[in-house]
Design brief:
The structure holds two protein chains of two kinds. Chain A has three domains: about 160 residues, Aldehyde oxidase/xanthine dehydrogenase, molybdopterin binding domain (Aldehyde Oxidoreductase, domain 4); about 300 residues, Aldehyde Oxidoreductase, domain 4; about 140 residues, Aldehyde Oxidoreductase, domain 4 (2-Layer Sandwich), CATH 3.30.365. In chain A, strand 19, helix 9 and strand 20 form a beta-alpha-beta unit. Chain A contains 15 helices and 27 strands. Chain A starts with 7 loop residues before the first strand and ends with a helix. Chain A is α+β, with helices and mostly antiparallel strands. Chain B folds into two domains: about 130 residues, Uridine Diphospho-n-acetylenolpyruvylglucosamine Reductase, domain 3 (2-Layer Sandwich); about 100 residues, Enolase-like, domain 1 (2-Layer Sandwich), CATH 3.30.390. Chains A and B meet through loops of A and helix 1 and helix 10 of B.
């Protein structure tokens, strides 16, 4: 019936879809679908929201109408939705992105049994969805056997390879374009079925096809953060020194792929401790495949560990900041390597000072403002300092403009700005003359905009490309006949501050960059930059750190938590741009407040459908939910992160870590109620 | 037009209608756009009553000096509706017609003994707000009838409005309460209390009001209220939370008012 509906051009489903191939599904080689199962691969429905057909019509309204006419008959089976219902079949996944998921150091059992003070509790976090304000979308355009996909992707290179493998095409025939992204947070990192569907549909109807996900689709079609259940045991001496950490996690994964929220991996090295055990188990449920969501692992993992540490501080009658300083890890004890640079103590000091932590009365419920309960809590923040190979080009044009290009992406974090800034710095020209071009798979290769790796991967390459452009400019100048550079070697020529001039001479004696091009009849000069991590990766542990301080005000009559003040201090190496960095800080804190107080996807356990698949029922914070947010940076360069002296680690993800436990700890301080189950909604506090 | 085709769905700001359309739950297919009937946008005094045209937007309510003077709790409720864009489009008539138990202005109208003015080709009838809703999203409005306005008789006493939502703004309510506390008479005080999000419709709580009038202790009045309402567990909260917070809000209202 749908096929005959007005305006319908094609109805594609399992029965008539073209042959599609499972891609390698290997992150390290840039082949990464959101889930291993290829769309329309079989006639089984594994989770609510799984695509069963796509309809192409002349108009969106006609397509939606026809979709209502599609009749699907199912043999109904009982789904498994809840973690607890699947616990018996929990299994031990081996690795997550190359990291072991079960490790033991020392003997935690013995250490726990002998510890002077112990704490053990279970912490749980719910399924959360990224919900960027821009939903995912894909426009497919075929030109003969070549495909252009206009995408909302955090990884144009990954999209190109993954789509190529899925469609069974050579990579060279596929062009991915994604210049602007309205937020991603991880849900646009890998290739999800809609991108394959738009390509398949456009081929079938032989014209461009646009496929936009609705907000409702965003809850089932591009990943989520798994629910987690974490049992944490801590053992300590009376002086606060940790003797044992046991972090045992159960997460969910789907029936069609494996993704593990590695909650415990940070617990292996965040504090100094001789006996540490970390274990992750997974259960398979009839829910879509989870995917990375801003600080995967660290975000829920630190909620458990940092809440537990706060509980330990009360057991020891010790200040929470002091407890963390006592257990400061001077080296990475898991990797047995020194840190490349670490200023965590400085973060505690800066944050505590700005916050006024010294005035904290430790007794829960002891700080009041009239009828309102005031609570102060803190937590450590952390995220790895990841770096990948990356390339950029810097083109100096005859009209004086400079193009800076790389196949990286800008999700809103400021990559356009920082790339232009680095090039302007090196070339000594106004930033207005720089144009950044990115988000296009034809440009020099770059890694995924994820894992907080863009700054450390792309900016050194950009700097190198700009330096290369200037070097080529000097060589070009040396060839100019009848000029100030006649008979000079390139080394005797200086290119800086927008002018080329003989070494030792005044800049005014030379020429503007573009004049060298004009007088040598060159349309442009292209500098190339490629940088990659080297042996320093085996010598040092690269990790960013921070401290989150939160003040909450709780109205006891309605049990509602208002975040009145947040102070965050981060050590992320050198700050390249104070404004974009601070904005990452604000957004991380706001997102963390959502995690702490609101975000929670609710499933109907009878059929696995999502009840909260809209932004009214899935609450995220509005401006009024956070008041004062202070973002501080240590701003000291990491001497080993890159060999180009930039010294900047990324900071997209660390900013959200530690917020939820700091809020939970503040809520305990305000009310005496320890909430170990996120989000902290009023009904749990009453 | 409504006389000829009584099943037409009247639309104004569309702030609820578009949500239903987007969710695919909108059954109606033919509509009557009221938006340009400026005559229904008036806020004025008529025979001692505050008369509010059905098309008055929440922004109109917030800005109206008449509303702020006579019924400040209605301005407070209007401020808690959605964001500014929604306040600019959404109308009080739409809020009443949509008949959601969580409608932000409805407890105010219930507590204020408002009257819903319904008009059809044959004439006008007035329905007391307390009798307007017959069940979950059900009203006494007949096909062919249009809500043209709300009339609110003079209100004496202290007014109170409080909405508790899932976040600090742009939230659907977990619980919403409006009340009017009259001057002390003899032993007790006359009170009119209404709540949203605790029953299939917005509700008045006559037993609680009677307890207040009889001069019962605040604890006794709170107990009566907790027995009188029948909230449910849902996405936004639990029955237990709503019951206890309703009691706490009542205490704040009554005790706060007696201090003033």
């Amino acid at each position: 019936m749908a096929e005959k509906a007005p305006g319908v051009l094609a109805v594609i489903h399992h029965g008539n879809a073209p042959t599609l191939y499972r891609p390698d599904n290997d992150f390290m080689s840039a082949s990464k679908p959101g889930e291993a199962r290829v769309v329309f691969e079989d006639d089984r429905v594994h989770y609510s929201g799984q695509y069963v057909a796509i309809i192409v019509a002349e108009t969106l309204e006609q397509a939606r109408y026809a979709a209502e006419l599609v009749q699907v008959s199912y043999a109904v089976e009982d789904p498994t939705i809840e973690t607890d219902a699947a616990l018996d079949s929990a299994y031990l996944p081996d690795e997550f992105f190359g990291e072991k998921l079960t490790t033991t150091r020392g003997d935690p059992d013995v250490a726990l049994s002998r510890a002077a003070v112990t704490h053990a509790a279970t912490y749980t976090t719910p399924i959360e969805h990224h919900n960027p304000i821009e939903p995912s979308a894909s426009v497919a355009v075929w030109n003969g056997d070549e495909l252009t996909l206009y995408e909302t992707t955090q990884w144009v290179a990954g999209a190109r390879k993954t789509v190529a493998q899925t469609l069974g095409m050579p990579e060279e025939k596929i062009h991915i374009v994604s210049p602007f992204i309205g937020g991603g947070f991880g849900c646009k990192g890998f290739v999800w079925p809609h991108s394959i569907l738009s390509a398949v549909a456009a081929k079938r109807v032989n014209r461009p096809v646009k496929l936009n996900l609705t907000r409702k689709h965003m809850f089932s079609a591009c990943g989520h953060r798994s629910e987690t259940k974490q049992y944490v045991q801590l053992g300590a001496e009376r002086n606060g020194r940790l003797v044992a950490i046991d972090h045992d996690t159960v997460v969910q994964t789907s029936m069609v792929d494996e993704f593990v929220e590695a909650c415990g991996n940070t617990s292996r090295f965040l504090y100094s401790c001789p006996n540490v055990r970390v274990r992750h188990r997974a259960v398979r449920v009839n829910v879509a495949t989870p995917t990375p969501m801003r600080a995967p692992g660290e975000n829920p993992g630190l909620f458990a560990l940092e809440s537990a540490l706060d509980e330990l501080a009360y057991l020891l009658n010790m200040d929470p900041v002091e407890l963390r300083i006592v257990n400061h890890a001077d080296v990475n004890e898991q990797a047995r390597r020194p840190w490349s640079s670490k200023y965590l103590k400085e973060c505690y000091r800066m944050g505590a000072e700005r916050f006024g932590w010294a005035k904290r009365a430790p007794q829960p419920g002891s700080m009041r403002d009239g009828n309102v309960l005031v609570g102060w809590g803190m937590a450590t923040a952390t995220y790895p300092g990841i770096r990948s190979p990356g390339a950029a080009k810097v083109r100096l044009l005859q009209d004086g403009h400079v193009d800076v290009v790389s196949a990286t992406q800008d999700m809103g974090g400021g990559t356009y700005t920082t790339m232009a800034q680095i090039a302007a710095d090196v070339m000594g020209i106004a930033i207005e003359r720089i144009r950044t071009v990115l988000g296009d798979s034809l440009l020099p290769p770059a890694p995924v905009s994820g894992g907080s790796m863009t700054t450390a991967s792309i900016l050194p390459a950009t700097r190198k490309a700009a330096q290369d452009a200037l070097s080529k400019l000097r060589h070009l100048a040396a060839t100019m006949p009848a000029s100030p550079f006649t008979n000079r070697r390139p080394d005797d020529i200086v290119a800086e501050g927008g002018r080329v001039f003989p070494k030792g001479a005044h800049p005014s004696s030379g020429l503007p960059y573009e004049d060298v091009l004009k007088r040598t009849n060159q349309t442009e000069i292209e500098g190339e930059g490629y940088t990659e991590p080297g042996p320093e990766r085996d010598k040092y542990a690269f990790q960013s750190f921070g401290a989150q301080f939160v003040e909450v005000r709780v109205d006891p009559e309605i049990a509602k938590v208002q975040i009145s003040r947040v102070v965050s201090a981060f050590d992320v190496g050198k700050i390249v741009n104070a404004k974009t960095a601070r904005s990452q800080g604000y957004s991380g804190v706001v997102m963390g407040v959502g995690v702490a107080l609101m975000e929670h996807t609710v499933y109907d356990s009878r059929d696995g459908s999502i009840i909260t698949s809209n932004l009214a029922d899935y609450a995220i914070p509005v401006n009024a939910d956070t008041r004062s947010i202070d973002i501080l940076f240590v701003d000291k360069p990491d001497p080993f992160i890159d060999s180009d002296g930039l010294g900047a680690r990324g900071l997209g993800e660390i900013t959200v870590t530690g917020v939820a436990p700091a809020v939970a700890n503040a809520v305990y301080h305000a009310t005496g109620r320890r909430i170990r189950d996120l989000p902290i909604t009023p009904d749990k506090l009453l | 037009m409504l006389r000829d085709e009584p099943t037409l769905t009247p639309l104004a700001g569309c702030t609820d209608l578009y949500v239903a359309l987007n969710f695919g739950t909108l059954k109606d297919t033919r509509f009557l756009d009221l938006w340009r009937l400026d005559r229904l946008r008036k806020i004025e005094l008529r025979g001692g009553a505050l008369s509010i045209g059905a098309l008055a937007t929440f922004t109109d309510l917030i800005r109206s000096t008449l509303v702020r003077k006579r019924l400040p709790m209605l301005a407070a409720a209007a401020r808690d509706v959605g964001g500014v864009q929604i306040q600019n489009r959404g109308t009080i008539g739409g809020n009443v017609a949509n008949a959601s138990p969580a409608g932000d202005t409805l407890p105010v109208l219930a507590a204020a003994d408002a009257v819903v003015v319904l008009q059809q080709a044959g004439g006008i009838r007035r329905v007391p707000f307390d009798g307007f809703y017959t069940g979950y999203r059900q009203t006494v409005r007949r096909p062919g009838e249009l809500i043209v306005g709300i009339e609110i008789p003079p209100v004496r006493g202290r007014q109170f409005f409080r909405k508790v939502g899932t976040r600090a703004a742009q939230a659907i309510s977990k619980i919403v309460m409006a009340g009017i506390l009259g001057p002390a008479t003899g032993s007790g005080r006359t009170a009119r209390i209404a709540l949203g999000s605790v029953a299939p419709t917005v509700v008045r709580v006559p037993r609680t009001e009677a307890a207040l009038a009889s001069g019962a202790s605040i604890e006794a009045v709170q107990r009566t209220l907790m027995e009188e309402i029948a909230p449910i567990d849902d996405l936004r909260s639990t029955a237990e939370y709503r019951r206890r917070v309703a009691a706490n809000l009542l205490a704040r209202f009554v005790c706060g008012a007696s201090r003033g």
